[in-house]
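Extended Data, panel c. Modelled sequence:
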Amino acid sequence: MPRSALTGSRIRERRVYLGLKQAALAERCGISPSYLNLIEHNRRRIGGKLLNRIAAALGVEPAALSEGADLVLLDALRSAADRAVPRAGPDAGEAARAEEFAGRFPGWARLIASQGRRIATLERTVELLNDRLTHDPFLSASLHDVLSTVTAIHSASGILADGGEIDSDWQARFHRNIFEDSARLAEASRGLVNYLDAGANTDRGIVAPPEELEAYLEARGHHVAAVEEGEPDIDALVEDPSLTSAGSRALAADHLRRARADARAMPLEAFGAALAELGPDPAALARHFSVDLGAVFRRIAALPQGVAPGPVGLVICDASGTLTFRRPVDGFPLPRFGAACPLLPLYLALTRPMAPVRAVVEQPGRDAKRFLTYAVCQTAGALGFDDPPIFEASMLILPAETVPIPEEAAIPVGTSCRICPRPGCAARREPTILSADG
């Protein structure tokens, strides 16, 4: 239904809210109650002076009656409707009636939109917690330490409570062991609680050098301006409070050296001009600068705002399939630990070294999004005749906000088998905890 066709519904909603009778409003506006009734039932279109008189009588701006709900609210309503009742087409199903609903019941519309956003947030939290509980090495080690200490205390206290004759020296040893184990249990418990609290407050706990590097880059928008010109002091750049270990500083230094090499091969101003001319086409940019595709992927993912073509994601893995670098993009979650979905073009590229892969992929769920991906597998570093080849695969992820997504069959991918709702997936490693309909 056109937006203007709902003006009558908004007039009625506002009148009822103010407690006005239909006859009273009609009298204020200089029209008959029967004509106002036709207007309120969307059987008569109005505009101009009459719309202004009705708006003045109701104490609102004319645009609030003629235009209705704002686009943000309508988008949120349509998103919530898509989750509950998938559309058969672009204007089919419940989502097509979002404007009508918002016009008749604005309060309920705002509540539903708010709950829709809350549900989406909770779904993302479930993904993070599942990934964390399943693969987090620190959490697993901490729980094992707690259980081992509890078992030791239970064994020692059981011997003392047995009631048998125990030499005084052995009793002292058992008491000392229980005291020491209790202190260790208290320390391990405090550490575990602090770790979980940190994860709850920041959506994720940083437990490994790669994650500290990710946080370091995220805080800078994935662009470190110092590498763009001159000879930056890499050691000084990695002396940052967010890089708490020697391992994370070493990873950051390697990353910045690689970024410096990419910046030399593709200077920022020249790359921005080529990007404006060629678009985010990695193959065309690689030919333009005579560099490999992986370098172009990294350069696009490290551009500052104003030069970047839009939101981008980048993921890199080694030959084992383990993710070594992640720059997630909205709607395309990546696991924190272990390998990602085996159907990703990233892994297809890993099986075909030096053969570029271009594919459209689609994430699962009620808000399924499509992305254009480019992937390639290349050798990392210089390769000698007697050296084993070290392969590295990279995948650039471009959402619809950055490039038009081609209308072609998409590869159905996911994040983790445990939280992927796709039924009958041949690549599934374990059963899902979600229902089949997402």
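Residues 168-202 form the longest helix (35 residues). This feature is highlighted in the accompanying rendering.
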